[in-house]
Each structure stands twice: as C-alpha cells, then as structure tokens.
Amino acid sequence: MNFECQVLDLAAAAKLKTDALLVLVPEGVKLGSDAVSFVLSHALKAGDFSAKPGRLLPAYRVAGVAADRLVFVGVGEGLARQVRAGLRAALAQLQGNHLKKLGVVLAAPSASEAVVRSVVQTVADATYVFTTSKPKAEARSLKSLVLGLPEAPDALVRQAFERAVAVVSGVELAKEWGNRPGNMATPTLLGQAAQALASDSSKISCEVLTPREVAKLGMGSFMAVAQGSHEPLRFIVLKYQGAAKSEAPIVLVGKGITFDTGGISLKPGAEMDEMKFDMCGAASVLGTFRALADLQPKLNVVGLIAAAENMPDGKAIKPGDVVTSMSGQTIEILNTDAEGRLVLCDALTYAERFKPRAVVDIATLTGACVIALGAVRSGLYSTSDALAQALLSAGESAQDLAWRMPLDDDYAEGLKSNFADLANVAGRPGGSITAAKFLQRFATAFPWAHLDIAGTAWKSGAAKGASGRPVPLLVDYLLAEAALAPAKTKKAQKAQKKA
Ligand code: BES
Ligand code: MN
Ligand code: ZN
C-alpha cells in the first residue's frame, strides 16, 4: 500500500481523483466556497450532519467533486482517538466497495502529529486482510491513501507521517506472523522470517541458534518447554546496528510460543486455537525490526526470540519436574502451562552479555492480565521508573497504551518452592504480577521492563486477528531513545575518562 501526503484545502480536495474522499470535520469548522464546503455547510445548517464524534454523512457523485463517494466524518474536537473512531466507522460503511484509492482530508486549519499518525495507522489497520492461509480471500483492494493536509506540514508533522508509514509496515509484519496458524508459523519458520529481515537490510544481522547450541548455552528451562514437541526450538538473535559498536544496545525479548496447548497441564478445548497467537511477542520484535530498517535511527537494538511449541507428549515436562535455568537457578515446574516465563527467563539471562542499557520483554504471558486490563492497555512492569515512564509515554504518543503494574516483593511469596530455587507459578490471585515477579528474578543485571500483551496482541470473536501491538509503542520508545544523548557502555565510559 502506498501512502502520500499532500497539501490540500477543501477546494483542492474536491478536485482529487479518488474512489472515495473522507472529510474529517471537527466542531467549529470554517468553510470556503468550494463544492465540498457547499454541501457540508448545507448539511450542518439543516441539522442532517454535525461534527459530533461518530456522525457520518455519505454522499454520491456530488457536483464539483471528483471522487465518486464523499463521506463527511464527525471528529468532535479532532483528537487522535476521535479521528480513529470516525475513520473506522466510515471505512466499515465503505466496505465492499473495492476502493483502490482513498483520500482523507482534514477540514481544519492545521493537522497535529497525532492526527496524521492516527489517519495512516487507522486506514491501514481497517483495510488489512490476511490471505496466507486463505488464498481465495479478497485481498486488500486499497492501493493508495492520499492524506490531504490543510497547510504545508512542518518538520514534526512530516516526521510523524514517515514514522506512521514505517510503523504500519512493522505492524503488518507482526500481524502476518501472529495470524498464521501454528503449522505455518513454527519456530523454524520464525527463524527464517528473522533471517529474511537481515537479508533485506544492511543494518540488521541475524543468528538462529538450534537445539544443540541452546543446550551448550545451558538454557535448561527453555529446552524443557520445547522437549514435548516434534518441532525443534529456535533461539533467534537479531541485531540492528545504527550507532557505534561501543554504544550499549536496548534489548527486546519476545515470547515465541508458536502454539500453547498448556502441555501436560493441558488447556481446555474452547478457544484453544487462539493459542496460535502465543508468539505475538516474538512477532512484535520482528515488526519492530522491520520499522527500524525503514527509519534507520541512530541506536543499537538487539532482538531475542525464544521460539518453541508447548505440547503434551511422552517426552514432555511434567508438573513437579525441576529444571536448571541458564542463570543456574533451579525451577520447579508446577504448571506446564506457565511456559512463557520458562522460555523468557533464559533469554533474559542471555541478554546480560550485551551489557544493555535496557531490556524490554514482550509476552502474551497471562490470562490474568486480560482480566486486569482487558484489550485496551498492555500491562507494564519495570524495575526502573525512568524506563517505565519512557514506555508509558511512547504508548501515549503511539496511541498504543500501557498501564504500569506493581512489583512489590510480597507478590513473590507464592513462588517459593521446597524443591527448587523457585516455582514457576504462585496462586491465582495477581497472576500477571506473580509472573512478572518470576521474570524479575532473571532480570537483575540491567534496567528491565516487561509488557504483558495477553489482552492487546489479538482480537477474539468475529474480528479475530492479530493487532500488531505493541509495535507502535516499541518503535516510538526506540526513536525517543535514539534522540537522547548516546548511552555509552561502561568500557567506553572508562576509556573516555582516561582520555
Ligand atoms: N499463553 C498463556 C497466556 C494467555 C492465556 C494469554 C489466555 C491470552 C489468553 C500462558 O502461557 C498461560 O497459559 N498462562 C497461564 C498461567 C497460569 C498457569 C499460572 C494462565 O494465564 O492461565
Ligand atoms: Mn501457557
Ligand atoms: Zn503461553
């Protein structure tokens, strides 16, 4: 899909040759004497349309308007979320019209960064179609979006547009891998997807470790999860180098359970298919790297993906089994369905070797997080207030929200075990928090944050499908970090002091 940004007032927009022209109308709109303004002012005066959020007025073949379909979309105060809601409603109504070229213009004196992002990301999201396992599905018809801005965009608005386009390509890669069924998104295939990212960009390199190499590293916890499956595990190491080698990287760690049956602690059958989405953390790492390749920010990022399938089998781990993690800590696996933390803990230990300035893991970790926060905000845990703040603000600016959750040590009580250094589950209360407390035991060597995306990574029901979240949040976070003074490694800091 192609995105274009043009300077268009309503008079110019009327001449734009598109299949549909959506006019975003905020309260107190000032109108001219063009064909679009003419219709709009009459509709407003007659009370057949208002700028209230959610109001739509479609028109067809209006004299003086080049687009066949003209839709007025009320966007209230013109906030990003009002624009998103209005556009979604308008696009839903236009569905089935096989639009190839769409124009969206803002009937306001100027456009904010947030509104520009909202238009690009919403149109992409609303027109996305997954076809990999449904080749006869009608693919996305939309080929191009022209975003008309009332005045020449300043540098920030232009940048917001470019970012949004890159975020869309990252979100769509994350959706693609998230939506694939388990048999089309195995650990091996995820490894190949990562390698493809590296061959497409000179700034990205990729290494995919096999079971033998993972065994050598001593990742006993990760291996334990994979041992019940015929699909061999993969440990994926992606590197984006946009700054000097001496600069400490930010490490992203993705949970890549390509299917989660629960293992011997088998899940109930209803909706188990949705556990194909249990690699959405991994998919968000892939998507973020795709956006990095497009935007080329000046920072270093490492992406780690622990990919495995969680199956019940004669060889599978059993409740009560004790395994030794790469950190040396032993873990009593009381519930084989709490497998995400078992693969992530070894990836977190592996992250230490990069002497990172921060580590952020992303995981569809707990059903409890869905109960706590629903599908609106991802759960955010962090041992660093600065890191938590940076991620929360990135969520706000990217319209991909998170909410900070607590990490009080009292929550770790239930993880005590008589047979190992820790157990992999506590009781049901505070299940998302106790999962984070488990991970924290392996994240002591760096500032760390954990995003529980169990509620936000995909939608259930009729619109079942991956959301591509939290790629927008992660991209904004990384770009904000790149804009800060470069964080030096300890070694480089020492060398600098000596000089
Ligand atoms: N992948 C699931 C978490 C999940 C469940 C995400 C439902 C979205 C919807 C995870 O591996 C899991 O099974 N967690 C268990 C943990 C429990 C056994 C402590 C859960 O949430 O039930
Ligand atoms: Mn599970
Ligand atoms: Zn899982």
Q: Bound compounds, please?
A: ligand BES, manganese (II) ion, zinc ion
Structural class: alpha/beta
Shape: elongated
CATH superfamily of the largest domain: Zn peptidases
Please, how many helices?
A: 15
Q: What is the strand and helix layout of this fold?
A:
Layout: E1 2-7, H1 10-14, E2 20-25, H2 35-46, E3 56-60, E4 69-74, H3 80-94, E5 101-106, H4 113-127, E6 144-149, H5 155-179, H6 187-200, E7 204-209, H7 211-217, H8 220-226, E8 234-241, E9 250-260, H9 280-295, E10 300-310, E11 321-324, E12 330-333, H10 340-351, E13 358-363, H11 367-373, E14 378-382, H12 385-398, E15 402-404, E16 422-423, H13 431-440, E17 448-452, E18 458-459, E19 465-466, H14 471-483, H15 490-498
Parallel strand pairs: 1-6, 2-4, 2-5, 5-6, 9-10, 9-13, 12-16, 13-17, 14-15
Antiparallel strand pairs: 3-4, 7-8, 8-10, 11-12, 14-17, 18-19
Helix pairs in contact: 3-4, 4-5, 5-9, 6-9, 8-10, 9-14, 10-13, 12-14
Zinc ion binds at residues 257, 260, 278, 339-340.
TL;DR?
36% of the residues lie in helices and 21% in strands. The chain is built from 15 helices and 19 strands.
Summary keywords:
single chain; 499 residues; alpha/beta; Leucine Aminopeptidase, subunit E, domain 1; Aminopeptidase; 2 domains; eight-stranded mixed β-sheet; binds zinc ion
